[in-house]
User: What shape does this take?
Amino acid sequence: MKRLLLLTICCYLHFIGLAQINYVENFNERGLPTNIPADSYWKFYNDINPSQTEWSKFIPGDGKAYITVDADVSNDTDATYPYQTLVFGGVAENHKLEVRMKGAPVDGGLVAFIFTYHQVGSTFNEVDIELVANDKNSTPHETLPPNGWTDARFNTWRDADENTALPHTGSAKAIIDANGDNISLVDDKFHTYTIDWRADEVDFFIDDVLQESFNTNIAKGWAEIIIGYRHLPWAGDFNWSGSHTMVIDYFKIEPLGAKSILNSNNFEMDTNEIQIFPNPANDILNLKYSHNLEILKMEIINPISSKVTTIKSLQNQIDISTLAKGVYFLKTTLKNNKHLIHKVLKL
Assistant: This one.
């Protein structure tokens, strides 16, 4: 059984074949960043707030970057869907893309995002996190803490046609915390937004909590990374005035290499010590344990990205409704340091 598991794991691992980038921008120097990887660049768009005209207004040199928008649509320089963004070019798949920022979701009228994009002719590739206080296409809800929440859209396009926006894989849902509860990010606090962009899977995290995972239509190839705002119709109507500023603490790119799911040879596969049903499952896994089993912790592991969801206490049911469709492993660590591995299929 161990051999079968290892072969299964190896089928999911992907080794990087493209140039790798290790880059952190802390915005400590005033103006256009210059200490950047070879063949890369920075640029900006100021369609929504045209008065943010120069690099020093985006990066004043105090360790932060600032993207400021105003609610006056009459001065937008793009009449369709204007941007206010910082852009880094370029990077390719098999990298972690991360930005730490506050003030991203605006309560009405704007979409905040981090996304990759590249287009040749009518064909484009894109991966993105899009944030909005209340998605116009969802049920109206409170947007402010403690009872409100922030909506998000997660998307990937691979060799899509600009006229049809297909093929595409995406979802729209509320942002959740580590307990699976809907949360609001309209809170004037810093939050971390991460995209693990692999050749065969993309995982989206907010504050290190897995929000979404796709393994179809994954964008490929060289891309720009774009951070900022855009006027989009599904953000609803403006219900704010004056100006609003996104504050970026850092921007980071790291290579994503192959990872080992199991850190021990002391494991058993699909044992009868834990019975799981139904399997495959849509929403709930039911668990039945041997009476003498001494469990230290349980985890659900994504075999492609090696991302782990820890189950905080011993449970007879596990909610997997927020997981993307695919294969997972339930890893149970016993007090004697033995690991029980059960393959789980999410429908």
In short: The longest strand covers residues 243-255. The longest helix spans residues 2-12.
